[in-house]
Known about the structure:
Strand order of the largest sheet: 1-2-12-3-13-16-14-15
Radius of gyration: 21 Å
Order of helices and strands: HHEEEEEHEEHEHEEEHEHEHEHEHEEH
Number of helices: 11
Number of strands: 17
Strand content: 25-35%
Distance between the termini: 22 Å
Amino acid sequence: MTYEPDLDFLEKLLLATGPTGFEEEAVEVFLERAKAFAEVEVDQKGNAYAHLNPGGSPRILLLGHIDEIGVIVSHIDEQGFLFLKPLGGWDPQVLVGQRLRVLGKRGPVLGVVGRKAIHVLKPEEREKAVKLENLFVDIGAQSKEEALAHLEVGAVGVLDQPPLWLLGERLVSKAVDNRIGAFVVLEALRLLKDLGTQAHIVAGASVQEEIGAYGARTAAHRLNPDYALVVDVTHDASTPGMEKKEVGEVALGQGVALGVGPFVDKQVLRTLRALAEQEGIPYTLHAHGRFSGTDADEVAWVREGVRTGLVSIPNRYMHSPSEMVDMRDVRAAVWLLARFAQEAR
């Protein structure tokens, strides 16, 4: 397995602002990179597609959602403080003290998430988990009028946390869920450009996964693929306090997690396992019940049904400013997707 990831592209993708439903900036980064080796398009919903070998057979959709969790401004008070509603699933405890980047009228507006300091919290307040409605954002404005000069109700924002490299090949950043999936599918397409394939391969960056996989439903219906491989992140089970009987055996640095469940096509899973063993790619089987909480849930049932597989990247600290992945797992996922595309008939 010889493949080197485009880390400049990965970092640009992670830095882009793209909360669910407002993914345009991240999509533009994806498309700009894809144009170098593929035919690109965007559908009415906002999903981005990169096509390799159009007209080839079979048609294979490689799909990773490009949206990230974010916030939307719901109110601006007389002092210029912003109040928020969630875009996607938040633990409000994670937001306290964080820096945000809000898309304003004339460009990004930076702010910090505030609450009362511990010194002035009442004893009963200290014991309670903070709620989002009790948090506010301070952008430095001294009045509502000053705040409104820069942004308005409906402005959206994300965590302002750049990618950082830790020991070994560990990467931490906001938006790893699931820019890493969008990265993997486009990198697999780039690799296939060199390796060669008779198939029509589509690398898709889907939108609005964090609020219901709406973009994936549109993408699968529009493309009507013969096969689909969905790439997302899943919980690493090796950190303190994680219960393997609940979250499975997945761990950073131990390869990809292959989904097993009612929505996964059995032949696709058998092929993925056989190719992983043939290529020396470590993998873990990851069991799901009724659904996985990924785009795969929707893709599998579109039209007469799409033969779908789920390939997941182990991720620590999901939906936080410091989501963590191991690039060895990322490279393994890229290679496995490329080999599946070469072998599919």
